[in-house]
């Protein structure tokens, strides 16, 4: 008679903690018991507990903060399709939350060498630089660094008049309709992206490095938007 193989003990820990997270025993944002506490509870080694926690991390259920402990991840504030071309503001509204924008910079300057190369414009091109914090119900979900060619803007343009959604400004004030986005996606860990009161909490991001065009393939903006990890969930529809 064949002997039934015992599942690894780490799998048992994963299963039990998944049930407890699902049932609210460990609510979103709560700190899990320490590794030592879990070792005592399940009667296993620290290596086994760490294997289980790594699996829960891969599943997106927990996160470990160096020196502070392991925490249950909060549910994303906003969900959107990565294939969707549209305004962050509208995706926040579709998620049932109130969007907000806080501008940290609005200034006219020449493009930087790396921007000129990415945008495919001459190195002496003048542009409007924007730095924004995008919020959902008051919580920061993204930091956006945007560069807009000066030639798109009115001759008497005052940078301070731009507020709120960038796409809304294009549509309502300039009559411009962004229809195409070419994006690169990166995972970023940095202490130099976030700014403002919540900056210390935000170190991990999903970066959308994106060029926006209209129907005539005219460049409208170069946007580097850093979505706060865990705050914004992208879905991608893939078909055969």
TrEMBL record:
This entry's Gene Ontology molecular function terms read: DNA binding; DNA-binding transcription factor activity
Q: Which GO terms describe its biological process?
A: negative regulation of DNA-templated transcription
Superkingdom = Bacteria
Boundaries of every HTH gntR-type domain copy: 7-75
Q: Which Gene3D superfamilies match?
A: Chorismate lyase-like, Winged helix-like DNA-binding domain superfamily/Winged helix DNA-binding domain
**Where is the secretion signal located?**
none
Provide the protein name. Answer: GntR family transcriptional regulator
Provenance organism: Embleya scabrispora
């Amino acid at each position: 008679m064949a002997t039934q193989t015992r599942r690894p003990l780490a799998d048992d820990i994963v299963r039990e903690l998944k049930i407890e997270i699902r049932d609210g025993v460990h609510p979103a944002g709560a700190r899990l018991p320490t590794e030592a506490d879990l070792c005592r509870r399940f009667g296993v080694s620290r290596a086994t507990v760490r294997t289980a926690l790594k699996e829960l991390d891969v599943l997106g259920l927990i996160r470990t903060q160096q020196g502070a402990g392991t925490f249950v991840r909060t549910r994303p504030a906003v969900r959107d399709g990565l294939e969707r071309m549209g305004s962050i503001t509208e995706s926040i509204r579709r998620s049932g939350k109130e969007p907000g924008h806080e501008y940290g910079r609005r200034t006219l300057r020449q493009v930087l060498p790396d921007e000129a190369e990415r945008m495919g414009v001459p190195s002496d091109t003048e542009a409007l630089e924007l730095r924004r914090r995008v919020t959902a119900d008051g919580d920061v979900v993204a930091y956006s660094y945007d560069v807009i060619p000066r030639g798109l803007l009115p001759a008497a343009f005052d940078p301070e008049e731009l507020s709120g959604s960038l796409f809304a400004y294009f549509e309502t004030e300039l009559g411009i309709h962004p229809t195409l986005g070419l994006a690169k996606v990166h995972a970023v860990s940095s202490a130099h992206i976030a700014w403002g009161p919540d900056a210390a909490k935000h170190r991990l991001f999903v970066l959308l490095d994106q060029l926006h065009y209209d129907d005539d393939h005219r460049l409208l903006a170069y946007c580097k938007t850093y979505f706060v990890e865990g705050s914004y969930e992208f879905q991608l529809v893939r078909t055969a």
